[in-house]
Design brief:
383 residues; disordered N terminus; seven-stranded mixed beta sheet; 12% strand
């Protein structure tokens, strides 16, 4: 016997989710109560002041996997530097990555650039309102498309992310998992039945605020929840059981040693490949790479001149880096015998060079290295 329907939704999940019935019974109430609460308590966020598709797109891409408080200054700086979609589409890639520095998940910045450039090239500079066309743009999935369509264009489109799944999991006492695509489709179907046609954007933003300020993953503030009267998990005293928690896998830990090589007021840097982890960003040298390409005597010379900088920890989506930093400064009187005639390190000439402090401060670096980079800028300007 097949336990799934043709759409991939498990029968057990579907049969335990009478969302059509629930929507008929509570749809008007949740819409009215939630919007009334939103009118009184909405967060004052800069991207809410103007319902401009470009600003919605920019804010939503920045907010992916990032807290609102972190995003606000980046959003404001981006708008100051590139106030229109056309401005951003014509921006230098490196300048955009530099402006994004510290926000993390740099693929979002590259997707943002690809998306706005596609809008200029294919849609005359106007962000499309149709879901099909939005989903063809880099970095835009169903949630972001729903947010743009509802907030910027006033269309009754659901914007379902993990927070919204959590809210409706508790409201209906249904064991949905936020990361499960089939469960997200079920929540989307439910939201589409209760979203008000006259204020779809406000409704979606109210759900976002509810999930971010009250219906929290841990220790939710149920006493202050505007929809507590229809929350089945609260009624049955089972809020902590929802949503269904998928066991998390332990992230592997990788140990790395970063070598910051300096000489005569300059530092050696490399640019990472255009694809892969931290694509297109700049970095210093890695001991593992140099061990495979440098003569043993030069590597020994390097390590004899080391100044330990401590350790940095950086958490990626799928792994953790523990990075030990070492600075090695060669006096001008010392010949770095491991360098080739062009002054580059073996095996890295295509993407590496020696630069000054002035240039160093302009380059985009991954967050795990920015503190060492900033400290080095200060040190090199004193040479």
């Amino acid at each position: 016997m097949n336990d799934t329907k043709g759409d991939g939704v498990p029968k057990s999940a579907e049969s335990s989710t009478p969302y059509g019935e629930w929507a008929l019974q509570h749809g008007d109430e949740i819409s009215n109560v939630l919007l009334s609460w939103f009118d009184r308590s909405a967060r004052n966020l800069p991207w809410r002041s103007v319902r401009d598709p470009y600003r919605v797109l920019l804010s939503e891409l920045m907010l992916q996997q990032t807290q609102v408080s972190t995003v606000i200054p980046y959003y404001e700086r981006f708008l100051a530097q590139w106030p229109t979609l056309q401005d951003l589409a014509g921006a230098d890639d490196q300048a955009v990555l530099k402006a994004w520095e510290g926000l993390g998940y740099y693929s979002r910045a590259r997707h943002l650039l690809a998306a706005v450039r596609a809008v200029v090239a294919q849609h005359g500079g106007e962000i499309p309102a149709s879901e099909r066309e939005l989903l063809q743009l880099k970095g835009i999935g169903e949630y972001t498309a729903g947010a743009i369509r509802s907030i910027a264009f006033g269309l009754p489109a659901a914007a379902v992310d993990g927070n919204v799944v959590r809210v409706f999991s508790r409201l209906t006492a249904t064991s949905w998992q936020p990361a499960d695509p089939a469960h997200r489709r079920q929540v989307r179907a439910l939201v589409e039945q209760v979203i008000p046609a006259d204020r779809p954007g406000d409704f979606n933003e109210a759900l976002m605020d509810l999930g971010a300020t009250i219906c929290l993953p841990q220790n939710p503030a149920c006493n202050g929840c505007p929809v507590q009267g229809i929350c089945q998990a609260l009624v049955t005293e089972s809020v902590a059981q929802f949503p269904d928690k998928k066991p998390s896998r332990e992230k592997p830990i990788e140990q790395h040693t970063c070598l910051i090589l300096t000489q005569g007021g300059k530092v050696h840097v490399n640019r990472r490949p255009e694809k892969g982890l931290l694509a297109g960003l700049y970095e210093f040298d890695w001991l593992d790479d140099l061990s495979a390409s440098l003569p043993d005597d030069f590597l020994t010379t390097l390590m004899e001149r080391q100044e330990k900088l401590g350790q940095k920890r950086h958490v990626f989506t799928h792994k953790i880096w523990l990075v030990d930093g070492i600075r090695i400064d060669f006096p001008l009187s010392v010949t770095a015998t491991g360098l080739d005639k062009a002054g580059e390190l073996p095996g890295q000439a295509a993407n590496s060079r020696w630069i000054s402090a002035d240039e160093l401060r302009t380059l985009p670096f991954p967050k795990v290295l920015t503190q060492w980079r900033d400290d080095l800028v200060v040190a090199l300007t004193q040479v």
